[in-house]
Amino acid sequence: MKSPQAPVLPDHAPLRTASVHVETLGELLAHAAACGVGGLRFVDRDETAELVGWREFHERARTAAAGLTELGVRPGDRVGLVFPTGPGFFDAFFGAVLAGAVPVPLYPPVRLGRLAEYHRRTAGMLAAAGARLVLADARVRRLLGETLERTAPVLGCRTVGELPRGDAGGLAPPAARPGDLAMVQFSSGTTVDPKPVALSHRAVLAQTRVLDGCWPALLGAERPTGVSWLPLYHDMGLIGCIFPAMDLPSTVTLISPEAFVARPALWLRAISHYRAEISPAPNFAYGLAVHKVRDEEMQGVDLSCWRVALNGAEPVAPVVLRAFCDRFARWGFRPEALTPVYGLSEAALAVTFSDLDRPFTAARFERAALSERGEARPIGARATRGGADGGAGAEAGGDGGDGAAGIAGIDAAGGAGATAEAGRDGVELVSVGRPLPGFEVRVLPDPGDEDDLPPSPAGTARLPEGEVGRVWVRGPSLMEGYLGRPEATARVLRDGWLDTGDLGFLHGGELFLTGRAKDVVILRGRNHAPEEIEHAVWEVPGVRRGCVVAASWLPEDAESEQLVLLVERDLGAGDRAALPGEIAAGCARAVLAATGLSPDRVEVLEPGTLPRTSSGKLRRREALGRWLAGELVPPDPVTPLRLAAAFARSGLAHARRRLRGHGLGGGEEPQEA
Amino acid sequence: MTEDDILAGVEAVAREHLEVRLPLAPPMRLVEDLELDSIRLLTLAVEVENRFRVRLDEADDAAIETVGDLVGAVARKLPSDGRATAPSAGDASEPATGRPGPIE
């Protein structure tokens, strides 16, 4: 049902930047409504469009908010949202905001997907967020039964239409303060360890203003418009696209992620038709467009309006950027539009942007120096410490950090089949640019072991340019913390800085990422907890329970991140041991069924191969690094004879440590040689 | 349209959009046997809908685990007057030329 359009002011109406009186999301919506310009345009797979203006959203939100208050939602209550892309999401989101509640966007079920896994995951997230109510789209709600049984939110689950009739003009809940929580977003949805990122109004608006500050100088246009197919439960989709459009205000055209994935041409056609200047997407989307869009679908399409093609949310592959430019130049795509960016949901969204009106920067660095010593030596430039770029050579205190394990993605994946020529040519990395206004980025030594707390920027000198280390950021849009997780929060928010868990170096003032210290698996722009993938295979016949590592990395010349599973096999009893091929196939199917992800590689290893800490914990990063370097081989076989000798020589404690180092927990029998 | 026609149509979608080249049989499970990940399941759902001009809703989705389930779900959604046209050889929904549908 199409809604009446809000009246539109003429183009020359003065731009109303967000005033100092807009300090909360509710005030942002009121501001957009008052300006009377812009809104959201929803385009479906048949390219039929429905425009809803900000003013109408504001009215609908006030009605919803009154209903929520009548239902018993109190300021500060978390409200889970399960909606596909559509006006309903925003009625629920802004309704919660105006009621003083804290919206928590969640994923709707995937098409033809496994509902059992969906229920477990969603229930976990609702519980972690402490949601008192779930608002859902009518069609989705029918499927949420099991989720709701598990979490039993106090106020149940409703559609917006089912909310009681409240008094929209009556007593409003007390206005939110800038320091109050505005919303919660999940950095990854898992059954094992969901991390709800809690963002204040102040943080969300700071991010919104920083983003909108980028456009005027570049575009000249006062109200640039955008197109996005990104899911609304993803930071780049919501904070990246919607709030900035409310701030200007202007219009964003939204396509559902399902429609995009099935037909990527919809994205490019919408940009062309609506003459949008801005559109963001994760790296894989650019690759999908290159491969799946047909020439016939591009008839009449003109991409010359597209001035800012942001590329973020996952590592950027230079081969994809070039392929995209080559393919779509014919239809007016400007290469300088490509803008790799970097951010994370713990910082609300963006931290660094590359130059908006220049083609992306990629540089080559000496392979051995990078992988063995964590030194970024540009090919062709004189590689002295401090270098021609200056950098912080005078402050070069501190250990360079163990860059080797951290840049596993650079190394042998390309090196394994690399020719001498490739070795000379080095490794190509894409810059993600410079810190946005108000943000700072520092590279610090990385301990190389996830069990050790990395040194924070307070009291530890930063590394000079050209040295790989751990990336720390500071800025106005950092999260308040992980909701209900003070220890996890204390590990990453320290002394006013955020430990991103990413590894990289600065070069010419620009940030280059080389890998991740944190264990998160990033595929198609989404974060996944490795435990979730690993647990899926523990019961596969032939797999040694608890001896599985899931990791992702971007191989050189690959278009997107690859998922690898490293699995120790259980030798079992005699001839009942499963064959490695069977184990690998079983693991791939189990992961697919549990997570919808398809591993690119499953490597079956001998028992005791995966590296562990002294306390027996699996070291994922080291496992990935060693595997890429071709170094994962089983340790010396432990025979009863050797074991006895070890006990005799060095005492019980030493022998126990050695047993654990081979992946043999307490009480397990040693393996035969 | 018979269920065999629908199965042939689903096979065509799988071939054209998912590069699944083996003949499909009703007992085949979408995840375990065809090894479709979440993106490919989505693509299958959307392209089958486009081809047969039906919409499967979330309740239908939840009950579909095999090729046979999918064929049955499509069959239930098709008009029952027996006059439904067979799917075209190519994509059921041809993209419009550069200008999308009615816009304000």
Q: Based on the structure given, which CATH architecture of chain B is correct? A: Orthogonal Bundle
Q: What would CATH call the class of the largest domain in chain A?
A: Alpha Beta
Separate helix tally of chain B: 4
What is the chains' assembly state? heterodimer
Flag low-confidence runs of chain B.
83-104
CATH superfamily annotation of chain B: ACP-like
End-to-end Cα distance of chain B:
38 Å
Give the helix/strand class of chain A. Answer: alpha/beta
* CATH third-tier fold name of chain B: Non-ribosomal Peptide Synthetase Peptidyl Carrier Protein, Chain A
Q: Average pLDDT of chain A, to the nearest integer?
A: 84
Biggest beta sheet summary of chain A: 5 strands, mixed
The tally of domains of chain B stands at 1
Commentary on this structure:
The complex is a heterodimer of chains A (673) and B (104). Helix content of chain A is 32%, strand content 20%. By secondary structure, chain A is an alpha/beta fold. In chain A, strand 27 (562-569), helix 20 and strand 28 (601-605) form a beta-alpha-beta unit. Chain A starts with 24 loop residues before the first helix and ends in a 12-residue tail after the last helix. Mean pLDDT of chain A is 84; it is low at 1-17, 382-423, 650-655 and 661-673. Chain B is globular and about 30 Å long. Chain B has one domain: Non-ribosomal Peptide Synthetase Peptidyl Carrier Protein, Chain A. The chains are: A alpha/beta (673), B mainly alpha (104). Chain A binds chain B through residues 5, 43, 45-49, 51, 109-115, 139-140, 142-143, 258-259, 261-263, 265, 269-270, 272-273, 296-302, 524, 588-589, 592-593, 595-598, and chain B through 30-32, 35-39, 41-47, 50, 57-59, 61-62, 64, 70, 93, 95-104.
